[in-house]
């Protein structure tokens, strides 16, 4: 709920309203003296509101309930605060239950499409893989307003992200309001997890403050059962158990804005999180050959510590009352990770007889840092018939990875290869964009934009003395055509071109030893992959949405399998090895005709094929589908008891070279509010039937593998939260014809 006050001339405005039905109510001493419904789809002039009253008007209130999930021209919006299933979780928990979003093997993607990038408050987070997953786990779901899945990002957004962007929008404080809260969460899966949090927000006169801190502790567990077939004479079966204890994770967020004048505002946002993890991994590998059978037991343990720092300074200058403005953003991001792992390995002939001469031990020490500096200047101007957006951006990223591999025990000379490597990576990005939006006719509307990005990178490896440079200049167009036949029927056609640049880890040539016969490395010669996205969407009353989409990703990055020179083991190396093509049909419907029930149903049916020229890669294709249903039930008239029931089901699908089996998820959440909605209690159960288990198959010419992975998504989570605060600190009052209005709020 936001609030505003009248200007001296009696004018008022509400901004950032989502499309939907709203009711304006004017109350005098608790009695409604004016009420009217409005169907808001775009900017609207309410005209002059006349109220025939003699006494002081106490309040004008605009009320309306946002849908749990909203569909817009270029994005889907999930209103997190409306779902009981997200209370007490983190950003990754929310993404796992969102329609059209797939979270597998620490990768985020759009169902039927490819990978995407993550933003927080419209600002790109330069992380991937485990680093990104851990960062998302540090963001409390209670601090998230909504999450946007932008499948067709306009020109003002970075071109990074093959199939789009995920934008996490954090909550802001309400006008003339202060609020503080404290709470805690207990989560029981195979092991326990708990956190405590507190926060404070204030929006008074010219100052806005947002702050919160969170503490986390707990244990996570993953179990993997994997089989390898190398050629026809050797079979490897492995069992993997990983246990990690999260200790002392701290996440702090502080933001402040100051409205210097009616036109100019200045503010900052800072986020800091730190955590320590103690890893323990058990790996049993069964090698079956025609002449022998060997069991190799590998135990890996060690600490890992991570620190993330993010600072943003921003300002805005309003050019007029129509929404024209200029925005300046300066950003700094740092990721610092340190690891120290020891690996022990023992061999057993015929799976039972211990062979001491084959003992092997090694140590891996890594210190990985990312620094990112960026600045952007964006302008937006509104004219009578057209809206223009334009801007520039510059970004500099520097990474260093000091890695050491030391053999502690080995009787095999080929394994006695102590290695130290210092991997340095630098990149610079410059961008300029412009876009315009306007009406062609009364029913036709067009938006077109063009973004130019120039990119330079430099890689230096101390170990190999290799230096690699790469530079490019590419155009990324975006076209959006909209036809509104009437207020109930809307047709959209969109085309966007995107890019996916290699992550820092996939560029590092250093060979990481997972076990005695399992090695993985990056590739400094990787190139970006490019994607063309075409979508046609139809919307009926903004409740029923039908979409047809096609996308093509060229030179997508995946890991290819190779044999070393002596053919003693295989190793994985990152390559531009896949060209992906996909065509699909998406259907989603919001059912909200019953006051106490809101249901969202989503169905994606698609055909996908992957091709490659890399030797050993087998092309694949598949028809697949995903189904989601999310039910929100209000169990009492005051809507203080909210029950959420969700179900997800996915047919087998491909992610690059990997075939993922079908899986499903059933979850239930209930949220209750007491003491004038100040006390919140929530209970959530996820993966109740333990069906969120994926079997992953890889099929290369030199080997085949089947991998069953279960990361224990089954859990019960209990959350308690208490809100303190005052809905109005002090409201500015203005006289208008012997009438006074105050506390104008939107819900």
Automatic annotation (TrEMBL):
It is found in: Cell outer membrane. Keywords: Cell outer membrane, Membrane, Receptor. Residues 318-722 form the Outer membrane protein beta-barrel domain. It holds the Pfam family OMP_b-brl_3. InterPro entries: Beta-barrel_TonB_sf, OMP_b-brl_3. GO terms for cellular component: cell outer membrane. This is Outer membrane receptor proteins, mostly Fe transport. It comes from Apibacter mensalis.
């Amino acid at each position: 709920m936001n609030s505003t006050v009248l200007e001296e001339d009696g004018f008022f405005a509400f901004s950032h309203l989502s499309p939907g039905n709203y009711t304006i109510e004017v109350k005098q001493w608790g009695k409604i003296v004016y009420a009217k419904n409005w169907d808001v789809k775009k900017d609207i002039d309410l005209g002059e509101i006349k109220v025939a009253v003699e006494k002081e008007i106490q309040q004008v209130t605009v009320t309306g309930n946002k849908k749990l999930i909203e569909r817009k021209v270029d994005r889907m919006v999930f209103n997190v605060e409306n779902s009981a299933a997200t209370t007490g979780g983190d950003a990754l928990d929310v993404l796992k239950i969102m329609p059209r979003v797939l979270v597998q093997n620490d990768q985020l993607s759009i169902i039927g499409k490819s990978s995407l990038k993550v933003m927080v408050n419209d600002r790109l987070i330069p992380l991937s893989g485990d680093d990104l997953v851990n960062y998302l786990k540090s963001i409390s779901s209670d601090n998230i307003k909504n999450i946007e899945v932008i499948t067709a990002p306009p020109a003002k957004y970075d071109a990074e992200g093959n199939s789009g962007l995920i934008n996490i929008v954090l909550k802001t404080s309400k006008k003339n309001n202060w609020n503080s809260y404290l709470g805690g969460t207990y989560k029981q899966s195979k092991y326990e997890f708990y956190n405590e949090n507190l926060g404070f927000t204030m929006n008074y006169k010219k100052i806005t403050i947002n702050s919160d801190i969170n503490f986390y502790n707990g244990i996570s567990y993953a179990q993997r059962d994997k089989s390898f077939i190398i050629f026809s004479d050797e079979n490897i079966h492995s069992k993997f158990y990983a246990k990690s204890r999260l200790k002392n994770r701290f996440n702090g967020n502080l933001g402040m804005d100051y409205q210097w004048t009616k036109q100019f505002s200045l503010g900052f946002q800072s986020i800091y999180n730190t955590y320590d993890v103690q890893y323990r991994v058990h790996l049993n590998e069964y090698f079956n050959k025609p002449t022998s059978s060997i069991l190799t037991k590998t135990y890996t343990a060690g600490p890992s510590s991570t620190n993330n720092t993010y600072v943003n300074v921003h300002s805005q200058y309003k050019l007029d009352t129509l929404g024209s403005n200029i925005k300046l953003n300066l950003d700094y991001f740092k990721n610092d990770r340190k690891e120290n792992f020891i690996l022990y390995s023992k061999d057993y002939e015929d799976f039972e007889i211990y062979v001491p001469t084959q003992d092997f031990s090694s140590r891996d020490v890594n210190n990985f840092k990312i620094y990112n500096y960026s600045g952007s200047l964006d302008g937006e101007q509104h004219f009578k018939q057209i809206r223009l957006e334009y801007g520039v951006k510059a970004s500099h990223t520097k990474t260093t990875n000091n890695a050491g591999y030391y053999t502690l025990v080995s009787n095999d000379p080929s394994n006695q290869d102590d290695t130290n490597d210092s991997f340095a990576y630098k990149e610079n990005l410059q961008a300029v964009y412009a876009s315009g939006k306007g009406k062609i006719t009364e029913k036709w509307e067009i938006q077109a934009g063009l973004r130019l990005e120039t990119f330079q990178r430099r890689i230096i490896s101390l170990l190999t003395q290799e230096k690699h440079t790469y530079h490019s200049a590419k155009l990324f167009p975006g076209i959006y055509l909209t036809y509104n036949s009437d207020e109930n029927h809307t047709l959209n056609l969109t085309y966007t071109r995107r890019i996916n640049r290699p992550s820092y880890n996939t560029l590092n040539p250093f060979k990481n030893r997972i076990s005695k016969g399992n090695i993985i490395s990056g590739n400094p010669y990787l190139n970006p992959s490019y994607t063309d996205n075409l979508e046609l969407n139809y919307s009926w009353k903004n409740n029923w949405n039908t979409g047809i989409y096609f996308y093509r990703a060229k030179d997508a990055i995946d890991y290819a399998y190779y044999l070393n020179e002596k053919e003693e083991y295989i190793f994985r190396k990152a390559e531009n090895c896949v060209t992906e093509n996909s065509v699909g049909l998406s259907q989603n419907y919001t059912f909200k005709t019953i006051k106490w029930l809101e249901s969202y149903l989503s169905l994606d049916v698609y055909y996908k094929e992957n091709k490659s020229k890399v030797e050993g890669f087998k092309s694949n294709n598949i028809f697949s589908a995903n189904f989601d249903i999310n039910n929100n039930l209000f169990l009492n008239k005051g809507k203080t008891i909210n029950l959420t029931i969700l179900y997800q089901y996915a047919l087998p699908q491909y992610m690059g070279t990997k075939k993922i089996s079908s899986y499903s998820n059933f979850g239930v959440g209930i949220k209750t509010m007491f003491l004038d909605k100040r006390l919140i209690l929530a209970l959530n159960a996820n993966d109740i039937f333990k069906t969120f288990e994926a079997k992953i198959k890889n099929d290369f010419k030199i080997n085949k593998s089947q991998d069953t992975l279960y990361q224990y998504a089954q859990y019960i989570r209990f959350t308690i939260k208490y809100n303190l605060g005052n809905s109005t600190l002090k409201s500015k009052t203005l006289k208008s014809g012997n009438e006074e209005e105050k506390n104008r709020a939107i819900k």
